[in-house]
Specification:
single chain, mainly alpha, two-stranded antiparallel sheet
């Protein structure tokens, strides 16, 4: 029996190494055979790109670790110097996301997120449908400012406590099952959809903004992004509610005093708004207002703000403003030890992705591919947007959306340049679609988190996700074709 166990473990260990060696073999084949007849440097870049994308897709190594490969391989293969390779790891957009992460940590540390979420649920009401609506609104709002993964993790325990109360009631099992399913799906999907509303809402948005800044020298403003993408997010949240509770999984749960009592008990346990929460809220609101009104402030010409400066300013305020006074002295809203839980790996991932994209661009590969696809698909802009959006949303079901945007951003920009259209008309729908994957647990981290709860079956997620994917494609295409060109332009 012990021998069989060792054999099974050895077999599993061998299987886990397969993706690693597939990437290595692909890298070696491309490097040695040059099957596409490219220039030597271009061939080396393609080989490194194939290795990184293979390991990203298969998760042979942690994604941030894969993002560090250019620091070794580019100088080693003569693609770029170590200085040129390392520079994008300090791209200004990375600091935008760092600031957003730190503000999110401050909100989470002092439980402000729970208070916001519970109050929204309290306002919406305690019937089954209204609770689900409350969770959609609360999760969507939080995800606009925090990462979608962090938002899902915050809402998850609140949802479980609500489900526990409902399961203890004397309601039909089908009603309870549908309610539990909708609550879990609403957290995941609302996190995904809410994240597309702002540049900092989800990592793919920041990755694309960073690429645009490097390629075109254009700083995508917070307000311009919100003018196009926030309406899409709100419509997706609204249709999510209708699809789940009015069509696929009606629960027929009327207003319940027990659920109302649970919400009030949770709020009572938090007590009145404490001084640290007030100060975190002040920093959060100040930062958000500066992001939204940045262009108006810059028009005064007193000084020039950009989103990265504002994010770091907000983060610094958290380390400066005292939260409370203890026996050991004044405790700031954030202490440096709090940053241990920050997603530093995401910042490295951005750096590696920007470096890879720069190398692909300099080698002329992106321009070549863009012209080929443009010539193959013709110049029907609406059709191209539909194809790119559809491909992006379904590829994201099986591939990390961050890695996907990093790889696809140069390609779609090359297509746009080749046919002479606003590159945002292809890049932004590609980016938004990458965050809207709804069918598979591995599509986005929020999908995986809620699927692990046990309240969702794979066929239920696939059915709901397919409907939401189709709705997402329609909304993203319509906004990108008719509205986006009038709001976001190269300037």
């Amino acid at each position: 029996m012990q021998k069989n166990t060792h054999s099974i473990l050895a077999g599993k260990s061998f299987i886990t190494w397969i993706p690693f060696w597939v990437g290595m073999i692909l890298f070696a084949l491309l490097l040695l055979t040059n099957p596409f007849g490219l220039e030597p440097k271009a061939c080396k870049v393609v080989a490194v790109a194939a290795l990184m994308v293979t390991w990203w897709i298969t998760e042979a190594l942690p994604m941030p670790a894969v993002a560090l490969l250019p620091l070794v391989l580019f100088p080693l293969l003569g693609i770029a110097t170590i200085g040129e390779t390392a520079a994008p790891y300090a791209n200004e957009v990375i600091f935008l996301f760092m600031g957003g992460f730190l503000i999110g940590l401050g909100i989470e540390k002092w439980n402000l997120h729970r208070r916001i979420a519970l109050n929204i649920v309290r306002v919406t009401g305690t019937s089954g449908n209204r609770i689900i609506l409350g969770f959609i609104l609360a999760t969507g709002f939080l995800s606009m400012w925090l990462s979608n993964t962090a938002t899902t993790m915050m809402m998850f325990p609140i949802a479980l406590s609500v489900i526990t109360v409902v399961r203890a009631s004397e309601l039909p099992q089908k009603s309870i099952a549908n309610f539990s399913l909708c609550i879990m799906l609403s957290i995941a999907y609302a996190s995904n959809f809410g994240g597309i509303a702002t540049i900092i809402g989800t990592p793919p948005n920041v990755a694309y903004a960073s690429f645009v800044n490097k390629k075109y020298g254009v700083d995508l403003s917070f307000s311009d992004w919100m003018m196009v993408c926030t309406p899409i997010a709100l419509l997706l949240l609204f249709t999510l509610y209708l699809v789940m509770v009015k069509w696929l999984y009606p629960n027929h749960i009327r207003q319940s005093d027990s659920m109302k009592g649970m919400i009030h008990r949770e709020l009572a346990s938090l007590g009145r708004l404490q001084t640290p929460e007030k100060r975190v809220l002040f920093v959060f609101v100040t930062t958000a207002l500066l992001w939204i009104t940045r262009d108006l402030v810059n028009q005064l010409k007193w000084f020039r703000l950009d989103d990265s400066m504002i994010a770091i300013f907000g983060a610094l305020l958290l380390f400066i403003i005292p939260a409370r006074t203890t026996e050991k002295g004044s405790e700031k809203i954030l202490e440096w030890k709090d940053t241990g839980s920050m997603a530093w790996g995401i910042l490295l991932l951005f750096g590696g992705g920007i470096t890879l994209a720069n190398a692909l661009e300099k080698a002329g590969l992106i321009s070549m591919l863009g012209k080929w696809i443009a010539g193959f698909s013709g110049s029907n802009v609406l059709l191209i947007i539909i194809v790119i959006t559809t491909l992006s949303i379904f590829i994201s079901e099986v591939m990390s959306n961050i890695a996907q945007v990093i790889v696809m951003a140069p390609v779609v920009s090359g297509i746009a340049d080749a046919i002479g259209i606003n590159p945002f008309m292809l890049g932004i729908p590609m980016t938004l679609a990458a965050s809207a994957a709804s069918m598979m647990p591995m599509g986005t981290p929020p999908n995986a988190i809620v699927f692990a709860s046990g309240y969702i079956k794979i066929r239920q997620m696939m059915k709901t996700g397919l409907v939401m994917n189709i709705i997402s494609i329609v909304l993203i295409v319509l906004f990108s074709y008719f509205i986006l060109p009038k709001v976001i332009v190269l300037r």
